[in-house]
Write a structure and sequence with these properties.
Layout lengths: L9 H29 L1 H26 L4 H49 L1 H11 L1 H18 L1 H23 L4 H8 L5 H39 L5 H11 L5 H18 L1 H26 L8 H46 L11
Amino acid sequence: MQVSTPLLPEAARRFAAWCAVLLLAAGVVYVGIRLVVEFRTAVVPVLLALLGTALLGPLHRRLVKAGVHRSVAAGLTCVAVVAVVGGAVYIVVAALIDTGDDIVASLRQAARGLSTHFGAAGTSLDDLASNARELLGKFGGTAASGVISGVSVVGESIAMAVLALLLVFFFLRDSDKAAGTLRSLSPRGSADTLEAMARRALRAVEGFMRGTTFIALIDALLITLGLLVLDVPGAAGLGALVFVGAYIPYLGAFISGALAVLVALADRGFVIALWALGVVLAVQVLEGHVLQPMIQSRTVQMHPAVVMVTITAGASVAGVLGMLLAVPLTAAAFGVVQELRIRYGDQEASPSGTSPTGQS
């Protein structure tokens, strides 16, 4: 009997199989991203509502434990978040309006000062500060022109915000039914695994949102206090930018800190700029070595390189909104992977024919 010889060696066949798997996975991810972009008006409110539910879940649970009806507790939580977010937006916008001219003037003065030392490079910085709106329209493309000319963009944003708020209410009110619904929809034999994955993902997002908000508040207060002591103009507005930028890890802190140093350089001179740089670096060291390990020690830890790649990918897909959503969603994905690794590791470590719980 003649045995047929494979056309390709074993190593080549394995390589081809892995290539096929990677291409299939990449195709699925690409189609998924395209669908999300196409239906962003419906997808974005759901994602924002999930993040809001993760952040507000502990408050809602405390109200329920205190004897408040679930619907009333969800309504009170939504009212509270509207009041807090509305107040925060008012404070940030008011601070930027009051100090925005000072910040822009200081940046222009810094650009002119740099032009005397660096020639054409400094002149380019001055042109950048003087023609920011023109550059935004030139390089922003469709997004910038849509924001400038499209009243529909504002209406769409308001509609998505209202939809996200309503979804937060329903998600909070019916959060006790989520596990049962997931188990009823899961295939036979996978209910426990899917529920564990969902809980792990939710815990990761909850930890990220709460920790990031607390760290952003501390960073903004400390940097604002330091800039006020140094008598840097626009300290309140710069502190507001630090708070908002903290939700974009690494990149947001770098941009807001660089603006603070440039404003100090333009208005207060080189020595004060060095002190401002010292304040920013001290706060970042405090965040990286004390606040992050202490506050987010129980959440999924991601390498800075992974965070930067995630932020870049989110920006390429959905701009600033993608940058804001990329990290918490990646944290949820890391939580799911961690849960699967623990479960499969337990199964591999258990004896043959015995489940991880000890049942045959």
